[in-house]
Write a structure and sequence with these properties.
With 407 residues, the chain is an alpha/beta fold. Helices cover 54% and strands 6% of the residues. The protein folds into three domains: 6-50, no CATH class; 56-224, P-loop containing nucleotide triphosphate hydrolases (Rossmann fold, 3-Layer(aba) Sandwich); 268-382, Zinc Finger, Delta Prime, domain 3, CATH 1.20.272. Strands 2-3-4-1-5 form a five-stranded parallel sheet, sandwiched between helices. The relative contact order is 0.10. The structure holds zinc ion (ZN). Zinc ion (ZN) is lined by residues 108-110, 115-116, 118-119, 121-122.
Length: 407
Amino acid sequence: MLRETVTDCAACRLSGGYDSLALVLCQDLPGRLRRSPLARSLMCGTIAFQMNENVAAGNWPVVGHEWAVELLHNSLVAGRRPHAVLFTGPPQIGKRTLALALAAAMNCAAEGTRPCGQCRSCRLIARGAHSDVRVVQAETGESSREGVLKIDQIRELQRAAGLAPLESPNKVFVLREIERANLPAANALLKILEEPPPQVVLLLTSARPHALLPTVISRCQILALRPLPFTQVASALVERWGASPEDADLLSHLSEGRIGWAVERLKDSAARDERARRLIDAQQLPQMGRLQRLGYAETLTRAPASIHPTLVLWASWWRDVLLIQQGCQKHVSNVDRLSELEQQAQAFDPIQLRRFLVRLQEAPAQLNQNANARLLLEALMLHMPAPIARGPLGPSFGTEPAIVRPV
Ligand SMILES: [Zn+2]
């Protein structure tokens, strides 16, 4: 679909139809907006939000997503309280925050603007301690596999939903990452979505709405959240979370418009060290022999929690290399590594890079679908782009050690 709707923009052609890349790169968003509602919904979130930047967000404790805040606020003011809303959008973009803000607005005890942020209800919701506002989510262990939202959790929700609210007019359940619900749980959820008790509001979030049952989607009001402009993320990091301008600039670019990711990373110095290590690995691995790369895959497999973030980081790295090759330097994410990116851009063939990038971008989803992590990593290692010539990367550049054969 994307290939059909974006044909004029060199950056979009480069993306090959991959949302995350196209979203960042598209150079002709106003044209996309005019041309196709489908393209608008898929591609042009960034510009759309820039255009709506002036819409007042009121007192809602949410960064960005002004159009969604305005829509929900106006619904409540008009007395149209939703019974089920599905918030979609990339991970850590603010879906849960907006859902909890809506819960606060519905249960706020203030007379004037709601949510007030000051009343007992608003403060309890902000602390995650409100008896009538519950967050339900799958439990994730140390494994790289995602947890599953089980039917027992939905049954408990059904039981709790049947009870009257303790202290507020509405009983709100925020179901995070609802795509993790297994089939029995999803079917049980359908029942309560069909006939929710009058005081119950169900707020679902999902980064992969295409994985949901159509019957679940059709019973919800859908709000598709899009990445925020970099400038909005950066200024929020400085003003609300006290980040330095340098940190805010870097994190806003790395976040791809996901404010939750940027805030989490701002507080996590260990993650920064990990990023530095993995970026060095990304540059050194193509220079290593196959056996060394396969050894790296084995080592990485032993740290399953690191696999997904490493794949995402490497995808951003090689995408940036590709961007520099295409003269789109202003769109790179790893803005603190420009000189290294430029070195790499001179050393690799763009076609090979693009093929590898596609594999990298598909890998996280394959992991989520229970692909064997070690096999997947080994395949990636074997398909790494090879440097095309001796250059500035050092004396070992481009060499391939002889394969050691058993005697
Ligand atoms: Zn309040």
